[in-house]
Amino acid sequence: MIYLLRHGQTDYNRDGRLQGQTDSQLTSLGMAQVRAMAAVLAEQIDDLSGWRILASPLRRTRQSAAIVSQALRLPVEIEPALIEVGCGSWENRMYADLRIEQPAAFAGRDWVFNSPDGERFEDVDGRVRPWLATLPPEPERKVIAVSHGIAGVLMRGAYQGLSREETLEQDTPQDALFRLRGGKVERLACAPVAA
Q1: CA-CA distance, 55 to 141, in Å (whole number)?
Q2: 101 belongs to the catalytic site
Q3: 3-state secondary structure of 154
Q4: pLDDT at 130
Q5: Looking at residue 72, which CATH number applies to its domain?
Q6: pLDDT grade, residue 194 (50/70/90)?
Q7: Which of 7, 91, 119, 148 is an active site residue?
Q8: Does 8 map to a domain?
Q9: Choosing from 43, 77, 79, 84, which is the catalytic residue?
Q10: Catalytic: 7?
Q11: What is the pTM of this model?
Q12: Is residue 91 a contact partner of residue 112, using CB atoms and an 8 Å limit?
């Protein structure tokens, strides 16, 4: 089983700035969102023996994983395969500015892969699929993965065998987490939080 979490809200999320692989930090709302996810995990997992917390190396996911770690009393391991899509020269830019400058690049759901010097769908898919294949089979698989919006969507798509289009139609919540079990993905909502 895999519990997949997206990091909580960051200052870049709040401000409408594209992060990609840029480091940014959680806001107070983001920290509250992760605490709510950790509470769901504590309710879902009766016996923590054998469970691992794996996090992307970026600051926002390490901060999120640390909150989960404190709640569950499990150590955090850094997993490079969980890192977010790299958006090249678009990183640190405001979404609104990019949409005005390059409206055609933002026409579809796959806009995040349209940066002229960023990663493509195949690059991120080429990280998450092999990582999933290295995990022990179910039921021995006991992983809490703290990742990102796009990397998480591609992981869920790969896990379910979805097409590229179906994969990109999935949402990227910061107020819910996902349970990947038996080839299916289940969304687990968290209690509403405020900053």
Answers
A1: 16
A2: no
A3: helix
A4: 98
A5: 3.40.50.1240
A6: confident
A7: 7
A8: yes
A9: 84
A10: yes
A11: 0.96
A12: no
